[in-house]
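=== RUN LOG ===
request id: a7f3
mode: sequence -> structure
chains: 1
length: 225
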Amino acid sequence: MPLADVELPVIGAALARCAAVRAWIRQQAAGACFNGNIKRPTHMTTFPINTMESAPDGSKPALEQLQSAFGMIPNLIGAMSTSPVLINSLVGLFGKVHGGSFTEAQVQIVLLTDAVTNASSWAVAFHTTLALKEGIDPADVQAICDGHLPKDSKFAALSGVAKSMIEKRGRLDDEDINRFLAAGFGKHHLLEVIAAVAASTITNYTGSITKPPLEPPFQAHAWQG
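=== RESULT ===
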């Protein structure tokens, strides 16, 4: 699904001569000063949503793997494929995260928490859909989307430590670590969460930068933060 180009309005010469327009421009310029600089309107940069045919050759094997995993090429992945380096980095992590010691429901708890914490709207809608598909209590899913901990104790431990990792830039204190371990997880689980957070960093940042359109299957869970 290609992103529609967004163009800034072009003020014609005749319109620019209008006194009212000139006054408005002066007012906006005066109000846009910050630290001595004037903020000027900029053109929104758009990124292609690649298909298997349009993606760079270096991205196609990774794109095929992700298409097989999801049964489709999500728009975010299509945008990511513009960079073979980026999409191939994700594929390596993707397999490890989803094939590790956590259940898929636990993985989705972490990925949804990461998306909310990073304020990545596309990823929140996507992982909300997948979390519900995994049978996670809708109340727990909604709690995470609202910035709260789920009621399930293990889910709460996972969500809490993932959120703390991002907010504290990995500098967890003893209380964070002991709370996670007290929920029945091991030290290897704590380190495994780092891999999930790393994968989320790739997808969340890509979503925030490329702003892919949200596909119809995920629109029921659109999130504004």
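=== NOTES ===
Residues 1-46 form one domain.
Residues 187-210 form the longest helix (24 residues).
=== END ===
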